[in-house]
């Protein structure tokens, strides 16, 4: 399993906001992008989604900025990843067919749909209907998510002072 850069940057942004010397003060996207040497435009989309999901608060205006909306102990990493990761298609047979009845749920269980058949020809891998490998991958993915769900943002920032040295020096 590999997470996208999008998820990585979302996690890094939350870490940045959580370890700020004064977490209640507002930060801005440029500060985060500069600290991690990542694209401001890409980060803007991520921050927007984190705001829509309620993880961060945005304040507009001249003195505006962003800050965490919850305490780090209340931000579950597994829940976050299920909400922002675009898919968990480890293998072709986990992909959707794209019709509206087959859309993946977000944040409710694992967002996986097995490929169905269209007419008499299977879509994707020809052995999908009989393949037992997809069950192994499903179990592995479930375990991956279960491990992430055991941790919160607070767990990954318990070395705040060390993180601050890298981000704010």
Description:
- The chain is mainly alpha-helical.
- It folds into two domains: 5-74 and 152-167, Arc Repressor Mutant, subunit A (Orthogonal Bundle), CATH 1.10.10; 79-149, no CATH class.
- Helix content is 43%, strand content 7%.
- A two-stranded antiparallel ribbon has the order 1-2.
- Strand 1 (56-59) and strand 2 (65-68) form a beta hairpin.
- Helix 1 crosses helix 3, helix 2 crosses helix 3 (40-52) and helix 4 packs across helix 5.
- It is elongated.
- It starts with a helix and ends with a helix.
Please identify which CATH superfamily of the largest domain we are dealing with.
Answer: Winged helix-like DNA-binding domain superfamily/Winged helix DNA-binding domain
The average pLDDT score comes to 83
Shape: elongated
Placed side by side, the strands forming the largest sheet appear as 1-2
Spatial gap, N to C terminus: 33 Å
Portion of residues within helices: 40-55%
CATH topology of the largest domain: the name is Arc Repressor Mutant, subunit A
Instruction: Give me the secondary-structure category.
Output: mainly alpha
Please mark out the parts with pLDDT under 50 across 5 or more consecutive residues, or reply none. Answer: 97-117
CATH class of the largest domain: Mainly Alpha
Count of runs of 4 or more consecutive helical residues? 7
CATH architecture of the largest domain: Orthogonal Bundle
Let me know the number of strands.
4
Number of self-contained structural domains: 2
């Amino acid at each position: 399993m590999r997470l996208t850069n999008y998820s990585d940057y979302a996690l890094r942004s939350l870490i940045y906001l959580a370890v700020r010397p004064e977490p209640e003060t507002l930060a801005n996207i440029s500060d985060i992008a500069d600290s991690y040497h990542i694209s401001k435009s890409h980060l803007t989309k991520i921050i927007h989604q984190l705001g829509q999901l309620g993880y961060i608060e945005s304040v507009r205006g001249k003195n505006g900025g962003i800050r965490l909306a919850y305490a780090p102990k209340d931000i579950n990493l597994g829940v976050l990843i299920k909400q922002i990761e675009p898919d968990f298609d480890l293998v072709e047979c986990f992909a959707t067919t794209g019709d509206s009845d087959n859309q993946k749920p977000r944040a409710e269980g694992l967002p996986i749909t097995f490929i169905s058949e269209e007419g008499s020809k299977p879509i994707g891998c020809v052995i999908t209907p009989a393949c037992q490998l997809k069950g192994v991958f499903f179990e592995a993915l479930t375990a991956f998510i279960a491990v992430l769900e055991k941790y919160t943002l607070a767990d990954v920032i318990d070395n705040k002072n060390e993180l601050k040295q890298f981000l704010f020096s």
